[in-house]
Design brief:
- The chain is an alpha/beta fold and 462 residues long.
- It has 2 domains: 239 residues, Rossmann fold; 209 residues, 3-Layer(aba) Sandwich (Rossmann fold).
- It has 16 helices and 16 strands.
- The strands form 2 sheets. It has a 10-stranded mixed beta sheet, with helices on both faces. A 6-stranded parallel beta sheet has the order 13-12-11-14-15-16, with helices on both faces.
- β3 and β4 form a beta hairpin.
- α3 crosses α4, α8 packs across α12 and α12 crosses α13.
- The longest helix is centred in the C-terminal third of the chain and has 21 residues.
- It is globular and about 65 Å long.
- It starts with a strand and ends in a 6-residue tail after the last helix.
- The structure holds adenosine-5'-diphosphate-glucose.
- The site of adenosine-5'-diphosphate-glucose has 18 residues, from β11, β12 and α13.
- Adenosine-5'-diphosphate-glucose (ADQ) binds next to β11, β12 and α13.
Length: 462
């Protein structure tokens, strides 16, 4: 069995539950094959030389974790700059928030070259390499330039934008050409594959060969959708564990007279949280019977706070929540509870189960795992209703949710009202079908399908 090598910006010890579902899922294959997980250590060396970094190796069971320090300049241009100020906003259709500083691309390339240079000596001839996410798009091209012939797959966790938006990135052609150094590109949704196809046909003047095979720049690659899932069984077990049960009981007691609506996100502009609060406000305005009853709990954990756009969204949200509470709140009822913190993973299922409505309304999202977690946590006998943005990758799979356009405040408010009013038998039948789908295509299915496809994809590189 070939050894699996995973490369991602950050690395986690797959044996620790805090590592999260993805790490645990990748960890399974890494353990089975005595694999290697390679990435940034999280350490920034303040006065370190650019393009250099110390490599650390440690064992986590059968898995080797190899991590690399980054100099301040590499970190700022590769991670904060190009990854989070160019690729993240543009890939989420937010050209207005992109900063095409010319220095960023140099650092992005330099860091990818550094990753490749440090990885090559650790590789074996028949390794299977799986690279994750937008930080590392050019990694395979750098590895190929250093002579690597191994099979290399890439999974993009965020959306691929339409051709016309992609074309706004000054280095778009270089980025897309870099993708052709992989043997397999995995996207979250069919729509991302369509965006890729349009780019290849119209911008690169390449060809679609059928069976998800594409040819451009004298290379052939397979590009398919592999919607990422959650570990449904693990999440169900968490739901029945003490912490989640306690959370559920507390919420049910505290809000016994109320209907809970829940949002759980990183505080990112792609997640559409202000739009959600505006829709909630409209619900209270248009359907007064929800006053003193409907309560929105919005948990928004801090993220990337050194990037300007994140400070802006925080201020906007605080002011919106304050205004709704000021306008509609009563001495014994606050319409919005906004918490700018991470909640402990073990408590998430209990919170989800206590909520009559799960609000997952991003303006754009690669997949959105909270949508799947909300469904997995419900009591099948009396499940809550998922209100889901049509712009989340999850919407392609989760058609039985109530799909909304989060830009349409009025329409979203109407749909939330529909969710609050939905009869029990309809809630049950929608939930049953959603649960079946997320069970059939869970995170283990995702990992296995991607890796099986990567092993079998025709490769010109031997
Ligand atoms: P993220 O944008 O981070 O990831 P998402 O899928 O929504 O997104 O959530 C990841 C996990 O973080 C979930 O397990 C969720 O429960 C947890 N989480 C989020 N906010 C939290 C909070 N405030 N407190 C506690 N836990 C919280 C990217 C892409 C997504 C894609 C994932 C996986 O942007 O579209 O689904 O990768 O590929």
């Amino acid at each position: 069995m070939s050894r699996l090598v995973v490369v991602s910006n950050r690395v986690a010890d797959p044996r620790k539950p805090a590592a999260g579902g993805l790490a645990v899922a990748l960890g399974e294959s890494l353990q089975q094959t005595g694999g290697l997980w390679f990435g940034w250590s999280g350490t920034i060396v303040e006065d370190g030389p650019t393009g250099e970094g110390e490599l650390h190796q440690q064992q986590a069971g059968k898995v080797t974790l190899a991590t690399l320090d980054l100099s301040r300049e590499d970190h700022d241009s590769y991670y904060l700059g190009y990854s989070n100020n160019v690729l993240w906003p543009v890939f989420h259709d937010r050209l207005d928030l992109a900063n095409f500083d010319a220095g960023y691309i140099t650092g992005y390339r330099r860091a990818n070259q550094l990753f490749a240079r440090k990885l090559v000596p650790l590789l074996k001839e028949d390794d299977i390499i799986w690279v994750h996410d937008y930080h590392l798009i050019p990694l395979a091209a750098e590895l190929r330039a250093m002579g690597c012939k191994q099979r290399i797959g890439f999974f993009l966790h965020i959306p691929l934008p339409p051709q016309i938006i992609m074309a706004a990135i000054p280095q778009h052609e270089w980025l897309m050409r870099s993708l052709f150094a992989y043997d397999l590109i995995g996207f979250q949704a069919q729509q991302d594959v369509q965006h890729f196809e349009r780019y290849v046909l119209n911008e690169a003047r390449g060809q679609a060969l059928g069976d998800d095979m594409f040819r451009a720049w004298n290379n052939t690659v397979r590009a398919s959708a592999f919607p990422i899932g959650i570990d449904v069984d693990e999440f169900a077990a968490l739901t029945h564990a003490k912490e989640a049960q306690d959370m559920y009981t507390t919420m049910k007691r505290e809000y016994s007279q109320r209907r809970l609506l829940l949002g759980i996100d990183r505080l990112d502009y792609s997640k559409g949280i202000p739009n959600r609060v505006r829709a909630f406000r409209e619900l209270l305005a248009n359907y007064p019977e929800n006053r003193r009853s409907a309560t929105l709990i919005q948990i928004a954990s801090p993220t990337r706070e050194t990037v300007d756009a994140y400070g802006d969204i925080r201020r906007e949200l605080e002011s919106l929540c304050g205004a709704v509470n000021g306008d509609y709140g009563e001495l014994d009822w606050m319409p919005v509870r906004y918490i700018h913190r991470m909640v402990a993973r073990k408590r998430v299922p209990g919170l989800c189960r206590a909520a009559a409505v799960g609000l997952v309304t991003p303006l754009r999202d690669g997949m959105n795992l909270v949508a799947k977690e909300y469904v997995a946590a419900q009591d099948p006998a009396d499940p809550g209703v998922l209100v889901l943005s049509r712009f989340a990758g999850a919407a392609e799979q989760m058609k039985e949710a109530l799909l909304v356009n989060p830009y349409d405040t009025h329409g979203t408010a109407e749909t939330i009202q529909q969710a609050l009013q939905m009869p029990l038998d309809e809630r049950r039948s929608r939930h049953q079908r959603l649960l079946q789908r997320i069970r059939d295509q869970d995170v283990h299915w995702w990992r296995k399908t991607f890796l099986d496809t990567l092993k079998n994809v025709p490769s010109e590189r031997g």
